[in-house]
Amino acid sequence: MTDINRKKTSPGVKAYYAALRRILDLQRGILTGVLTHYGERGRNDEERLKLFLKQVLPGRFGIGTGFIVNGNPEAMPSNQTDIIISDHFFNSPLHRELAAEVYPIETVYATIEVKGLFSNRKDKDTGKTDLDKTLENIERIRDLARDKQYIEYRSVPKDDHYPEHRVVKKIVIRSSLPPRSYLFAYHTNDWSDLNHFADYVEKSLLQHNNSHLHGIVALDKDWFLKQKSYTGRERKVFRFEGNCLLRFTNTLLHGIQSIPMRPMDIDVYHEPDASPSHLFDKEDSGYDGEIEEEENEEYPEIGSIEKDQGSTS
Q1: HEC profile for 10-64?
Q2: 232/208 Cα distance (integer angstroms)
Q3: Which residue in 134, 75, 135 sits closest to 105, CA to CA?
Q4: What is the pLDDT of residue 98?
Q5: Cα(60)–Cα(255) distance, integer angstroms
Q6: What distance in Å separates the CA atoms of residue 223 and residue 112, rounded to the nearest whole number?
Q7: C-alpha distances out from residue 130 to 73, 86, 124, Å
Q8: Share of the chain residues as helix, strand and coil, in percent rounded to the nearest 5
């Protein structure tokens, strides 16, 4: 048996991710193709991307599939979302079932829609394209994030007469920062070049003003786009050709790690109709029926970071 010659030097991060991109592309094109049911092919594509994400994301980020809700029982939940990246340090899904999970909006860092074949064709029943459906779900999720409620526990004196008697008080912290949103397409065949593809995305974004795409991958073409923030009435995207999987991973990590996280206010979901006064035992907790509110600092969209190199725009 002949020994395989191996170099001692590393091929580097770009070469490593380029190899991973080719592997994902081959797996989708050949291995997924043995499945004869289109629904199972789609789930297979999602599972491959989940496996990749588990390899590159820190362990505190959960990776699952399901629906997103908020504490308002009258608010419409999201559609079933292919991949949900959530907090597994302070929080957990509200419900865990075999096929999908239900996530409070407070726990969600990012969502990823996965498309095996991404096209601009309109559905014959709805008249909507793949991108229309994706952007509509993003809009719904961003609407759910308008009032997120977290909590912090603080030690406070029970009363002025006995300052040494300290109890725990619950502080509610509100935030309206929405999750990051991504689209991952394994294969595209309706666009001749990167600029053609980017122009199509910008035009679609104009029709969905309340959505935002922090990253779009066209794996087979090795394209990556990310939407610019605060562009007024226009919708613009950064355009990159090459290293799409590496760019996606880097942008995703920046996006989810820039979102502040703390324990969610579970009472909003477990006791939606209850008066605040009985949720804590006053003698044990010092809870007085009053809830302080702190406005959480809003963070700019990650798309506003414009120092990336290699843009073809």
Answers
A1: CCCHHHHHHHHHHHHHHHHHHHHHHCCCHHHHHHHHHHHHHHHHHHHCCCCEEEE
A2: 13
A3: 75
A4: 67
A5: 15
A6: 16
A7: 29, 24, 12
A8: 30, 25, 40
Output the six-digit token pair for 243. Answer: 């290293």
Residues 96-131 pLDDT 10s? 876 789 999 999 999 999 999 999 999 888 889 999
The per-residue b/e assignment along 95-131, b for 16 or more CB within 10 angstroms, e otherwise, is eeeeebbbbbbbbbbbbbbbbbbbeeeeeeeeeebbb
Residues in the chain: 313
What CA–CA distance (Å, rounded) separates 216 from 181? 9
For residue 88, give every residue at least 6 positions away whose Cβ sits within 8 Å of its Cβ, in sequence order, or none: 59, 60, 61, 62
pTM of the model: 0.82
Domains of the chain, CATH where assigned: 13-144+176-261 (3.40.91)
